[in-house]
Amino acid sequence: MEKFDKVHGVAAPMPLINIDTDMIIPKVHLKTIKRSGLGVVLFDEMRYHDDGQENEEFVLNKPAYRQTEILVAGDNFGCGSSREHAPWAIKDFGIKVVISTSFADIFFNNCFKNGILPIVVEEEHHTILMEDAHKGENARMTVHLEDQQITTSDGVVIEFDIDPHRKHCLLNGLDDIGLTMEKDHHIDKFEDHASQARPWV
Amino acid sequence: MSPKTLYDKIWDAHVAHEADDGTCLLYIDRHLVHEVTSPQAFEGLRMAGRPVRAPEKTIAVPDHNVPTTADRVNGIENPESRIQVEALDKNAKDFGIHYYPVNDVRQGIVHIVGPEQGWTLPGMTVVCGDSHTATHGAFGALAHGIGTSEVEHVLATQTLIQKKSKNMKVEITGKLQPGVTAKDITLAVIGETGTAGGTGYVIEYCGEAIRDLSMEGRMTVCNMAIEGGARAGLIAPDETTYEYVKGRPHAPKGAQWEAALTWWKTLYTDDDAHFDKVITLRGEDIAPVVTWGTSPEDVLPITATVPNPEDFEGGKVDAARRSIEYMGLEAGQKLSDVEIDTVFIGSCTNGRIEDLRAAAEILKGKKVKDGMRAMVVPGSGLVRAQAEEEGLAEIFKEAGFEWRLAGCSMCLAMNPDQLQPGERCAATSNRNFEGRQGRGGRTHLLSPAMAAAAAITGRLTDVRELM
Ligand code: SF4
Q: Which residues contact B32 (CB under 8 A, 6 or more apart)?
């Protein structure tokens, strides 16, 4: 996985609460063999009209937010099914950070597996960040994982918490596979031993 | 040394690393791959620029999605299935893993192909992105199903992050009665333990009735360990096992065979080894069974009647009511009066040669009931070829069965073989969940011989009446 360092980019406001995984990516897009390429159907039903035309009202379709890297969303983001397609679509769109007052548990976990940083903030901080996100393209927000700080376009600094192990994994680009690969020498050793003990395998 | 169970021994032989909290990296000897749960895993490798760590231990075969009609040699019509199969074709080639493509005679259900080709051997760890991987436990191999992220993990590292399960013993003593098969054993055990009874455990099946089973029968028993909630099922290897394995294409040969045999003979549970849970059934007490509900634990002898939901306790009362309604049955109705319109013989539970022999034995010289849709889907191309050679295919066809190509088919109805709403099927597969064989379809699980009997009479039937 890519290392997660610092994001300095456009933040988009989605004040809606309870954005569920069906809204993030509807069922019809689950028959894919890929996890990439789902960015175009992110928020499919809100983003496009029935005839396939873009809904100009939807935030990510507005010129100011087409390059969004940070999403500031309403409470209980990512509820619904366990589909890993939801973080896959978010990531593919280019969003690296999602900020909310709370997340659904499975979605929260799935984010880390896919190199996305979900940040939980207090109500009062959330209000400040949501306001900042409404300012559009030139109001860039900064998320600094190492320091655990969000800096608004006005320079307001907000600290956030994160589990140290998860932070370590994101900073170093480690998923489960990456972590296991750090133990490569144990696996090598095991294979050496096993090929002596059970050569027929 | 303290006495160990078979599970302990295989586990201990495969721990590559153990963390302080008991989380282990378990080394995987065989990784079986099919088209439905693997595409994203391979894509993950590509995106990270990682190779498959041990391609020589990785075997792929398309099965879940493939059509089983003869015209599949001309290509797969359904675009989604075709894309998944083509993706597997490409992934197998790009990553250099062993592959049995759709039109190879060795193609078939992954859990039938593995043992058939000698990939599955005693004492191994075997995983696959499919819950019925437990099948391979019949060889005394520790085998479990995994999810897509874990498939990628195994492809990349040849290990799985695991914590050890508890030990459970299921003993079947004595002899089976005529007409009673491995399928009846495994269903009866689930009926006894419930679908969550094995949760947190690895089951070792033992006892005289298990020893007496062929390898095919043992695979049927272990296949459904997962339906009892267990992580895996195991049977200690013995002469029956060695006999089956010997000479298979990927089984060890010569001096390697001797060395392997020496180790395999140490793979049994020591006297006095500790089991956290023990269940014992008398082989003589097991009857030919069928399921009446929508959970594999809803098992009764064919001579019984549909139960009354009020006779259950707790949450099961509502569950039973819902099941009976979904299944279109009535409490008190004799199971042997339940009329069926479809018969499916196949799946990784009962798609092997012995299963086809047992069904053909009952069908010989008989016809399926008028209007019955009956289908045999051999578990692999080789099973199919052997059945043709033995004349079984003729018996099925003359009786009025469709004789299909190998695949999962109506076991999960991902390909075109599906039940219509309200259709009722006697099936040799392993899951009777709502909609499993098609939306609104009703499934009764039973043995191949019982399925054949039902095909003839048009209702659930005690096979002993036809013997
Ligand atoms: S036959 Fe059925 S249970 Fe077995 S692998 Fe195929 S779909 Fe799964």
A: B59, B60, B61, B110, B111, B114, B119, B126, B127, B128, B130, B133
Q: E strands within chain A? A: 6-14, 70-73, 97-100, 117-120, 140-144, 149-151, 157-159
Confidence label for A82 from pLDDT (cuts 50, 70 and 90): low
Report strand pairing: B58-60 vs B98-99: parallel
Say if the Cβ atoms of B159 and A181 lie within 8 Å: no
Sole residue written with tokens 């996305």 = A116
The half-sphere exposure of A38 on its side-chain side, counting CA atoms within 13 A, is 26
pLDDT the model gives residue B199: 86
Give the residue from B280, B279, B270 showing the smallest Cα distance to B7: B270
Most A CBs within 10 Å, among B9, B10, B11, B17, to test the A interface: B17
Length of chain B, please? 467
Give the type of residue at A152: T
Q: Say if CB B428 and CB B408 are below 8 A apart.
A: no
pLDDT of B458 higher than 70:
yes
> What's the gap between Cα A126 and its chain centre?
17
Smallest CA-to-CA distance from B235 within B217, B253, B247, B262 is with B217
Torsion of CA B388, B394, B400, B405, to 10 degrees: 10
Paired tokens of B225: 């360990």
**A116-122 LR contacts (CB < 8 Å, sep 24+):** A116/A87, A116/A90, A116/A91, A117/A4, A117/A7, A117/A143, A117/A145, A117/A162, A117/A170, A118/A77, A118/A78, A119/A143, A119/A150, A119/A160, A119/A162, A120/A160, A120/A161, A121/A150, A121/A158, A121/A160
Q: Using the 8-state DSSP alphabet, how is residue B43 labeled?
A: H
Cα–Cα distance between B272 and B275 in angstroms, integer? 9
* % chain A with pLDDT above 70: 97
Residue B412 Cα to ligand 1 middle (Å): 7
Q: Beta-carbon neighbour count of residue B281 at 10 Å?
A: 19
Q: What are A140's two structure tokens?
A: 């860039």
Six-digit token string for B34: 């099919």
User: pTM of the full predicted structure?
Assistant: 0.84
CB A5, CB A141: distance < 8 Å: no
Q: Determine what percent of chain B is predicted with pLDDT higher than 90.
A: 84
Ligand 1 pocket residue status of B445, Cβ below 6 Å: no
pLDDT beyond 90 at A63: yes
Q: Does A8 touch chain B (CB under 8 A)?
A: no
The predicted structure's pLDDT at residue A30: 66
The tokens 């309604």 sit on which residue?
Answer: B325
CB of B132 shorter than 6 A to ligand 1: yes
Give the rounded distance of the alpha carbon of B443 from its chain centre. 16
Label residues B375-399 b or e (16+ Cβ within 10 Å = b).
bbbbbbbbbbbbbeeeebbebbeeb
- Chain B residues bordering chain A (beta-carbon distance below 8 Å): 13, 16-17, 25, 27, 29, 39-40, 43-44, 47-48, 50, 53, 57, 80, 83-84, 87, 121, 123-124, 148-149, 152-153, 156-159, 161, 252, 256-257, 259-260, 263
Q: How far is CA A192 from CA A187, A201, B19, B50, B91, in A?
A: 9, 12, 20, 21, 27
